[in-house]
Amino acid sequence: MVSINLIRLYGGLIIGQPGSADFAHPTSIILSLGTILITLIFALAFSGILRQLAVMFGLLAGTLLGMALGSTDFSGVSHGPLFSFPQLLPFGWPIFDLSASLPLLIYAVISMAEATGQTIATAEIVNSTQNVQQAIPRTIRGDAVMSLLGGIFGTSLIITSGENIGVVRTTNVKSRFVTAAAGGLLILIAIFAPLVRLATCLPGSVVCGTAVIVFSIIGVIGIDMIAREPLHTPGKTYALAMGLAMGMLPILVPGLYQNFPAGVQMVFGNGMAAGTLTAILVNSLFNWSEKRTQARVKS
């Protein structure tokens, strides 16, 4: 569900807004498909560490293709300050506003649903020996702490990033020290302003093409996990079926909940949240029903 939802999102970014002058422009589509094709060529041609870097090579080659097609402009990289530091409490001291907190609570529930699936997928990829049921709440608590600290610098809620799952699978790099080093590099990049401006100059279609590859790999991971799960029991069958139904509906039928209250749209209009919460609820109901049946048989 994470994969399908994100592919739809980034696919929409590739073609742009309906009605705009550059909607579904051939250049954007060519850049995206070209990036995907080049990444595949690198993955086929290389082995070992070079194959692990196929996604990065595809991104760089796609950017060069964008330059050749005139879709890239690096003139703004040299303009501006050399360093840029975050401002503490840019929106002033925090205050409690109930009307503003309620939508954030709904968003937090959606984020927790996404974090659950992403934590399970990551544990599966890295062959973690930890208890996933214990790792999930720890991950969510970590997101909460980082969101609290991030708020000091004016950021939004910190959530687990779905594309990182695909990157781990693609590169096969599973070291947490590499993850920590990547986080340190991101901090340095954020402070060194020219690198930030350089990143913003990358063609959006190229970035989206790379993202589609990564998110598709997440879908493959999900299919592999489902294939190894016995689904012969009614509870698991209905939980998966109902989760897919509720998750796919807002993706396949945009605007399905547009006439519902904003809170309903926020939860059920998000395929990942609707699908995950539905699957959890249905599975819990079947487990409760089976336990009641077993208790009656014993009595």
UniProtKB/TrEMBL annotation:
> A GO molecular function for this record?
xanthine transmembrane transporter activity
The answer, when asked if Ion transport is one of the entry's keywords, is no
Q: Which residues cross the membrane?
A: 28-46, 53-71, 91-110, 177-196, 202-226, 238-257, 263-286
Q: Where in the cell is it found?
A: Membrane
Q: Which UniProt keywords apply?
A: Membrane, Transmembrane, Transmembrane helix, Transport
Concerning InterPro entries, the annotation shows:
NCS2
Q: How does it sit in the membrane?
A: Multi-pass membrane protein
UniProt-listed Pfam families: Xan_ur_permease
Q: What do the Gene Ontology cellular component annotations say?
A: plasma membrane
**Annotated family:** Belongs to the nucleobase:cation symporter-2 (NCS2) (TC 2.A.40) family.
Q: What is this protein called?
A: Permease
